[in-house]
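Incident log, entry 3
Record: Biotin transporter (179 residues)
Problem: checksum mismatch between cached and fresh output.
Input:
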Amino acid sequence: MEKNLTHIALFAALIAVLGLVPKIDLAAGVPITAQSMGIMLCGTVLGAKRGALAVLLFLVVGLIVPVFPGFTTTWQKIQSPSIGYVVGFPIAAFVAGLITQNTRLALFPAAFAGALIGGIAVLYAFGIPGMAIMLDKPLPDMAIAAAAFLPGDLIKAVLAALITKSIAQMRPEALLSRG
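Fresh output:
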């Protein structure tokens, strides 16, 4: 139990730290950040339940402490075009973890599939409608705008899979998604 709580807190902190990496602002008002890789890693390393809990902890802490890029809080993010992405964060981590822990593939392809499906497809399924609603723009226009995120998110998915595999090799007991 203590090990689980420690990992959940550590990964919540990791998401916050990844928010310190300078963001790139897009015209649609949703920045490109490294935090989405933290969401992917929560699932691929911690598994579905613990990964989602780590993200929820991050969001709860963010209600009080500015943990998002630009030193913004969860409250500020849910009032912005980023709302869909923020709402999708815990679900994305859960799906990434579910795929990583339940697929019979070797770890790298399983983690990559989890990061792709959970960390990109699921996140976009929430993020794009959120942008459309908050910006009062048509959904297809926002889908096209979100395409600007795709190259960076694909790189993050590869990095998440590589990091997950490295953790498994260096500290197998720390990889909770396959335990």
